[in-house]
Amino acid sequence: IGTTGPTFNFYHFEQVVRRYILGSVVDSEKNYVDALKRILEQYEKPLSEMEPKLLSERKLKMVFYRIKEILQCHSMFQIALASRVSEWDSVEMIGDVFVASFSKSMVLDAYSEYVNNFSTAVGILKKTCATKPAFLDFLKQCQELSPDRITLYGLMMKPIQRFPQFILLLQDMLKNTTKGHPDRLPLQMALTELETLAEKLNERKRDADQRCEIKQIAKAMNERYLNKLLSSGNRYLIRTDDMIETVYNEKGEIVKTKERRLFMLNDVLMCATVSARSSYESSGIMATGLRYLLKWSVPLGQVEVIEYGSSEGPGENCRFPPQHSAENVIVNVKPNKLYMGPGQLYHDLQNLLHDLNIVSQISQQIGSLKGNYQNLNQSVAHDWTSGLQKLILKKEDEIRAADRCRIQLQLPGKQDKSGRPTFFTAVFNTFTPAIKQSWITNLQMAKLALGKTYFP
C-alpha cells in the first residue's frame, strides 16, 4: 500500500495538471483568434467601407498586412485542437497537433512578413492620428465599445507575442509529462519546432531591419551612384558611429577637427557629414530628416588600421614618420589646456630617450674623473638618470591614454597617372575606448567574412 498509493496519486495528479494546461492552451488560442477577428471586423472592415476614407487603400493594406493569413493558420489549428480535446481521454497527446500545424512554410511566411511590417503599420497609425482627428476619434470609439477596452495597438501586438506564449505553455506541459509518456517526444519536437520558428522570425526581422537601414541611408545620400550601389545586392549595415576626424597639414600640425558619421557595411566603409534637411509633406506639415554629404567610400577589405605604440615598443608599428602625425585632441578637454596627440608625444619620447642615452654616457665619463667637484659626481648623475626615467614612464602613459580612443586608417585612393595604387590616411577619435575596440573588432570580423578575396 505504501508504494502503490503515491504512484497512483502522482499519475492522477499529472493527468489533472496536463488537462489544466490543455485548457489554458485552448482558452489562450480562443482569445487570440478572437483578437485577430476583432482587428478585421471592428477596424479593417469599417475603415475600408466608410466614405470619405480615413485611410487610403494602400495604407489600409499596409496597416492590416497578413492578418487574414495569420487568422487562417490559427483557425485551422483551432479545429485540430478541438478535435484532439474531444478525444483527450483516449489520446492524451497535444505535441503532434502543434508540429502538424506550425511546421508549414505558410506560417513562417505570414508571421515574418507581419513582424517585418509591424513598425511600418504602427508608423502609419501614429501619423494618421496626428494629422486626422476623425481617425483618432474612430480608434477611441472602437476602444470604448470593446469589453476589455484594449487598443488597436494592443490587439496588433498579439501576433508578436504569440509564439513566446506557446513556448511557455508547452514547456509547462513537458515539465508535467513523465518519461515514457506517448506525448513526451511529440512535445519535445513541438518545442523545437516553435523555438526554431521564433528564431527564424527574429533572423528575418533583423535582415529586414538592416535592409531598411540601408534604404534610409541610400535615400539620405547626396550621391546618385552610391544610392544605386547601396540599394543593390545583399548589402547590410553592421554599425553606424559618430566620430571626430582630425585633419593635419604637411608638417603634421592639426588644421581642423570635423564631426563625421562612419557607416560600416559588410563590404563598404563610408564617411559622411550629417546635416539636417527640411521638407513639406502634402499635408503641409514640415518633416525634418537627415541628409548625408559623402566624404569618401572605400571597399571594406582594403581598410587597414594603423596602430601606434604597441607592446613591441614605440614606433615599431608606425608606417608613417611620427613627425607627420602630430595631433591635438580637442574633445572633452579642460579649457586652456593643450592635449598633444601621439605624433608629438612620440617625438617627445624620442627626445627623452636620446637624452637618457647622453646622460648615461656622461655618467660613465664622470666615473673616470680624478678629482672631486661640486655638483659633478655619480650621485648627481644618478639623479639625472632617475628623473629622465620617470619622465619617460610618464610620456609612455600619455601615449597609451591618447591611443585609447584614436583610430588611424590607411585607405585606398584613386590610381595615379601610372596606374599604381595610392593610399591616404584618416584619423578619428571615438568617444570612449570601448567604442574603438568594438569598432576594430567588427572591422576585423567583417573582413574575415568577405572570404579570401583580400587574404590571398
TrEMBL record:
Entries under Pfam families matching the protein: PH_19 (PF19057), RhoGEF (PF00621)
Keywords: Coiled coil, Guanine-nucleotide releasing factor
Superkingdom: Eukaryota
Entry's Gene Ontology molecular function annotations: guanyl-nucleotide exchange factor activity
Keyword Coiled coil listed: yes
Presence of the UniProt keyword Membrane in the record: no
SUPFAM superfamilies: DBL homology domain (DH-domain), PH domain-like
Gene Ontology BP term (one): actin cytoskeleton organization
GO cellular component: centrosome; cytoplasm
All copies of domain DH, residue ranges: 17-204
Coiled coil: 187-218
Protein name in the entry: Rho guanine nucleotide exchange factor 10
Organism: Chelydra serpentina
